[in-house]
Please model this.
Amino acid sequence: MGRIEFLVKSRFLCLFLLNLSSFAYCSVIYNITTTRAVSPEQTLNSPRQIFELGFFTPNNNSHNQYVGIWFKEVSPQTVIWVANREMPVTNSSASLTIGSDGNLRLLDGERNSIWSTNISGQSNDSIAVLSDDGKFILRNNITGEDIWDSSQHTTDSLFPGTSWLAYNETSGVRLTLTSWKSDNDPSIGDFTLSVLPQTPPQALVWKGSKPHWRSGPWDKTKFIGIPEMESDYRSGFTFIEGLPPGIAYITVSVLRNCTYSMFVISPTGVLKYLCWVKVRGWYARWEAPVTPCEFYAACGPFGVCQRDEPNLTCRCLKGFVPKSDEEWSKRNWTRGCIRRTELSCGGNTSSINTQGGKPDGFLKIGGLKLPDLSDFLKDFDENECHQRCLDNCSCSGYAYVNGIGCLVWTGNLLDMHELSFGGQDLNLRLAHTELGGSDQKAKVKIIISVTTVSIIPLIGAMIYCFMKWRTSLRVKTNAPNDTSRENSQPIMWRRPSEDEDSVELPLFDFHSILLATNNFDKENKLGQGGYGPVFKGTLQDGKDVAIKRLSSSSSQGIGEFKNEMKLISKLQHRNLVKLLGCCIEREEKILIYEYMPNKSLDTYLFDLARKAKLDWTKRFNIIIGVARGLLYLHRDSCLRVIHRDLKVSNILLDEKMNPKISDFGLARIFEGTQYLGSTRKVAGTM
Model:
């Protein structure tokens, strides 16, 4: 009996295992044929089981079923492609099969065709497989030729492992991603993404038929309207054009430190570059638009969105005023701005007379996302680009972009905003009087002269009171028992004889600083440091200068200010920035330097486009120049100085790319024969 019982149990176990293996074989398959279909209880897997295809229901409260592809390992389920977006099935008897004509067909419970690949001239020798790069492929099983694949029929996602056809100008085929209607409804939504086959190409997100967001043009390495496209981001996305002409491809690769990554356009119109790691799930490495400034044409024609503001805030370009003050007062920016002064080119006689017959000019505005609707002028250098725009009365501005070339605009300038870093220079066409030329300066001088003559009695009284105050202050300063009051007085109100460390340095009044910087206009801002903002200014003699204004919130106070003023005025070297003067009035502490037209070294080293300008000769010249400046500070100057905050943003470049060391606020003076020293605390930049 024992032997018989053992045999019965063994046969039962074998039968159970056979049934279990048959069930597993039926629930997971690796191809679809005319005799093998996918039912709602089954899934089609890729060879390495990275992707899975089958029926899914996006909403637990709905009976609608769709055929889609998702990542097998990722939870919750992330669908990357849907076959029947507009035609869901509602019963459990549906199936995805290959018909007698060799096409993939989705059939409902009554054998009606809901969706089909609809390829003409096929036979029943087809087979369907799911690849490890997420493509659902219909293949001729005899020749091995791919007849159809899902990558040619995208839904809302792009994922790694394949090259996506961006556009083919000959056939008219264009890549389009279309958002889901909602997170629980894969039917066609309101937003689409496509790459326009223009020169240069750019990507746009549309809401219906209206632009919603754009990337800016492609410069062979990045879309210039997306400053975040640095090396890590660019390694996950590549745009390949012109091989052959009129055809372009997009490739997506897995980002560093991500198990999976993909592009997707959300139901709200946000384009996201997502990364998935097991411990964290999906998170956005980049997304746009996320701020009001990024929405298309948010500020209307000739309006610029200001990035530093928490809410949508617009301003007009210089030389322009709001088209409707009433609308702008209500924060309605959509109608934008209009010119304040008519251009002389193509204008009437009165406009030419107003400008004294002088031609229009261009104002350079930096750090912008360039406007939309540009025209590309092939094989033009920067000077030719300038001249071509100047000669065309309808040209509103131009830009010369590394990697692209000459871009010009006619008519309105739309969709501009300030970028937090990177950005391009726009040369805006303005009437001569709007450029602040010599005629404008002459008018300012006349106004100042008339005003001065009219208030001579008042000035005389003020001088008398001031001299009386200085006399009393000097008596108090020399009092032996009141040293604290001496230390509290602003240093520049003393005569050189009263302070052995004082220096003879030109003093500028605050009013002249305001005139030079156009009241510290944002358009004149060169940069921002721990000390405070730096502005470009133009003195009344026409000389350009850099004006550093001590921020009231800066940790650097009167001591650092005095230190920098004293040091730089005594240090003279061709590789040190030259101090031209200072201003101390009320709470203002300002230094005036020579202007460095090429800004600081970091603007070249950390900008992919500008970095190309630093060939080895220029780099070597900069290295030698900085070394000479340091040697002078450490060994050869009348004062031995250590800088203590030397970094690339404190190395300025003149018009010939010669380096000059700047920012001596934290510098320390050594004794005349001292070569070594120590400090009690860390100084400089983190």
